[in-house]
UniProtKB/TrEMBL annotation:
Entry keyword set: ATP-binding, Cytoplasm, DNA damage, DNA excision, DNA repair, DNA-binding, Excision nuclease, Metal-binding, Nucleotide-binding, Repeat, Zinc, Zinc-finger
Record's GO cellular component terms: cytoplasm; excinuclease repair complex
Subcellular location: Cytoplasm
Protein name (database record): UvrABC system protein A
UniProt cross-references to NCBIfam families, sorted A to Z: uvra
InterPro entries, per the entry: ABC_transporter-like_ATP-bd, ABC_transporter-like_CS, P-loop_NTPase, UvrA, UvrA_inter
Keyword Ubl conjugation: no
Gene Ontology MF term list: ATP binding; ATP hydrolysis activity; DNA binding; nuclease activity; zinc ion binding
Signal sequence interval, chain numbering: none
GO BP: any one term: nucleotide-excision repair
Family as reported in the entry's similarity comment: Belongs to the ABC transporter superfamily. UvrA family.
Amino acid sequence: MNDKITVIGAREHNLKNITVSFPKNQLVVITGPSGSGKSSLALDILYVEGKRRYMESLSSYARQFLGIPKKPDFDRIDGLCPSIAIEQKTVGSNPRSTVGTITEIYDYFRILFARIGTPHCPSCDVVIEAQSATKIADAITQKFQGHLVTIAAPLAIERKGEFIHELTDLMQKGFYRCIIDGVTHKFNHVDDIANLKLKKTYKHTIDILVDSFTVEDQDSLARLQEAIQRSFGIAQEMCKIMVEGQEPALYSSKRMCLACNIAIPELEPRFFSFNSPVGACTKCHGLGIYNRYDQTHSVMDGYALMMGTHVQTCDQCHGMRLKKDALAVKIDNKNIFQLSDYSIEKLLLFFQNIQLSESQTEISMDLRKEIVSRLQFLSDVGLNYLSLNRTARTLSGGEGQRIRLAKQVGSALSGVLYILDEPSIGLHQRDNDRLILTLQSLKNLGNSVLVVEHDVDTMRIADYLIDMGPAAGIHGGQMTACGTPQEVENNPNSLTGKYLSGVLSIATPAQRRKATKWLELKHARANNLKDVSVKFPLGVFCGISGVSGSGKSSLIFQELIPALERVLSHHKSKMYDADTDLQGVEHLRNLVQIDQSPIGKSSRSNPGTYIGVFDDIRKFFAAVPESRARGYEVGQFSFNRPQGRCYECSGDGVINVSMHFLPDVVMICKVCKGKRYNQETLQILYKGKTIADVLDMTALEALEFFAAHKILAKKLQLLCDVGLDYIKIGQPSTTLSGGESQRIKLVNELAKRDKDTLYILDEPTTGLHSHDIVKLLVVLNRLIAKGNSIIVIEHNIDVLKTADYIIDMGPDGGDKGGTIVAIGTPEQVALTQASYTGQYLKKSL
């Protein structure tokens, strides 16, 4: 029993009381059509229950802050390990979060620079070395002859306390005057010091003043030199020299540029943190940008900068986020920002060829080893084109997931159940091969790796396969096959097995469409694009391919779309580059882009509201004679309006009861029985159905019910055409999978326009089983048949082989990408030796 994890009686979401067992310490893949229950089993049961059991082992005090999840619906789980989920969700939108901070590599950088960094003068860039008090005194006496010089030895800078003993001791040594928090005091007796009553909790700035000297003869020079050395002695090798008519200068015997009168404070990790006041630029507070209309440059304003209004690069740190003193510290002639701006690949080369002294090498050995191993993990999962400075909010869901995966491999835990939700998203087939090796290394550490995946190559190398189905939604939730990949291939009940064995496949078109009209983009230079000029065919299916980071998204989303929007909407896009030239727009009337963002984050959002059919449905109910007689309007049939919704649950259908340190209890509303509406609204019937009954219909049932209404039926038919016939009209959007959400967005756009529209899709096969991809391709080809054009950014080789034309970016990612490697039909691209996509297409064709 200990060598297996067994789930008995799983009933969460659409799971039909299933029992599943799979081996521990193996790579297990759960597959099946979209919506068949894969994520329900892996994430909603195994991960949530593993997390819940761990949290319940903590004290009741700790549990109240953690929010223990509700126990999933199952009978028993045997052999469950502590679980860690690596999901598709993004890594956050905090403007201070970067790849370096997420992976903690930047934390190691800060320690590295604090321990072996070489400080340079921020003004003249010479290396700053430790100076003796005598050497500093000689320099000062030569420089300030004939001036009135005062020496301040800071006893307490930004330190809390009373300092009575320290002040008394200094008074006995002949220091009679001091500036305490900006006020000058002269002491005649020790009691005067005791009567200061300094606050213990207040951060003071206390300077002990030596008598001022007018430097004009040898005696005063000697006294000045003695005073400077004594001041350095009591001020922990730091003092302030104040010369009449000049700004005070801080002198340090640790690190000092005597030519520029600049001292560098003692190096510590916080000195290199843009999240700490010690290191962050004082103007932009470590954000690198600020609002040009905000005169105070407040910290809170930095978070509002994400909206993108009135933003400019900080003119003090020039976007580098740190103070100039921190940026003046270098390792092998590079500061911390410059290293963080390197790509992962370039950073690995830097640390392999770094030039260090013997002492630096010894001190940094463990740090460099940790940094290199984490960089290598990032490279192994296909992220070698990213830089540590890349902000988290610019990462795709797939990139964020692989960053978290690399971090987990680096932690070297064992005995853990890792659950990954489609880690191959956004990966070229070449990078996917690297990812598979990473998953195997995670398994070899002694972990159980459970992957929800549609990728055929990942399925083939799995130790164990679980195929869910047979279809999706209410038609799924069952285990149709399990065993080794070979056993699943030979199982006649497995839809996945038929695609693995080749019985079913995505067919290559017998004939390719040829473009007669073209859209030409010239001089594209965004990010890593190298002055690219490219022609996009119109009236056909065009695929944009290339390895991760090769410039696909930059070409389409930062160059082509802004340029198109500028012309089509007759106003200048914010992101438009004036040097970019676009020709052939006269062949288009509309532009539609469909990205991977979810359709809604609220349980009140649903497919019906998103595609607009719910508006029509509410109008039908409002037009019923009884509704008119009662004076009901359309708002009566909205669960977001007070007049029609249930007063007890406010239209949610459920009541959430907070239990503090226990998990919240979610109950079906006893008044409306989960129907969301009040009794008056539910008394109105349309064709014998209430508004709640209609919301509970699947798309297929609703299509039959509203068959006579052409506009509404068209949208419902599209839902069925893209394989979402099982989706309920009122199903909360929070329960939809990534693939389901994207196809709903596609349906919403398909229902709007007729012809001469350019559709741009960003990896529409995300979360789709091969059987669902077949349905999707039918819909896309129908669009082209109506006179539209489609551009798809895609990695899936089965989709690319069905394209009429391919533009392959590369040859690699980051600095090594940004060019066009191959163009033409899939057959032509397959013959291009320099194209990684071509190599995989050749095998597939």
